[in-house]
Description:
It contains 5 helices and no strands. By secondary structure, the chain is an all-alpha fold. The chain has a domain at 27-97. The radius of gyration is 28 Å and the shape is elongated. Keywords: Signal. Residues 1-25 form the signal peptide. It comes from Novilysobacter selenitireducens. InterPro entries: DUF4398.
Amino acid sequence: MNSSFAHFRWPALxxxxxLALASCASMPPPTAELGAAQQAVVRAEGADADQYASAEIxxxxxxxxxxxxxxxxxxxxxxxxxxxxASADADLAYVLSRDAVAQAELAQRRAEVETLQRRxxxxxx
Length: 125
């Protein structure tokens, strides 16, 4: 029997068509990403990010606004990218804020310990 590649033609063509259609399929709208970004901003605000990480929370808010605008304009890929950036910036603001609060509390506790040590050394009650 003469081997031929003709019998591979139709399955190969079908595979190419399936792959082409799959690559053209768009992802679902980034509503989950937008929601997560909004929650991240709210969480950072709740951690006093405006006081302790003002630049980072401002960047997160701006990215979130741009993501919402992109979504409204139908630019879903841009909206997804900006929402993810907003989440990352808000998470950074949250962490920086929590760190600043923890550092302030640590400094306060150290000052209290120092005061107690001075009292004990000086015999002051």
